[in-house]
Each structure stands twice: as C-alpha cells, then as structure tokens.
Design goal:
By secondary structure, this protein is an all-alpha fold. It contains 3 helices and no strands. It has one domain (2-66). α1 runs antiparallel to α3 (45-66).
Length: 67
Amino acid sequence: MDTAILINSIVYALLGIVIFVVGFIIVDKLTPYDLWKQVVEEKNVALAIVVGAAALGICIIIAAAIH
C-alpha cells in the first residue's frame, strides 16, 4: 500500500513538472522577446516579477487539476 502511494506521488510530481515546463515554454514563445536574456542579462526586475507571477499561476492551476 505504501509503495503505491509513493509511486503515485512521484508520477504526479513528474507530470506536474512536465506540464509546468511546457506551459512556461508557451509563455516564453508568446512574448515578443527572449525572457531569459531580459531577466538574467539585462536585469529586468519588472519582467522577472511578471514571469514569476505567471509561473505561480501555472503551478496553482496544475496543482488544482492534479489534486
């Protein structure tokens, strides 16, 4: 019984991570500029806050759908 719970948890965690990465790639493609370059190289704090909020939003949706 405990093994099945552990396997289910791992599967759902991996599924959530994969869905998050795909969602983040979609957000990156929808923006007119390279998010990584803007945030890391040009230190765009406002964009970093927006991207972080979008990431949290995606995570909340995934968590609610999996739960």
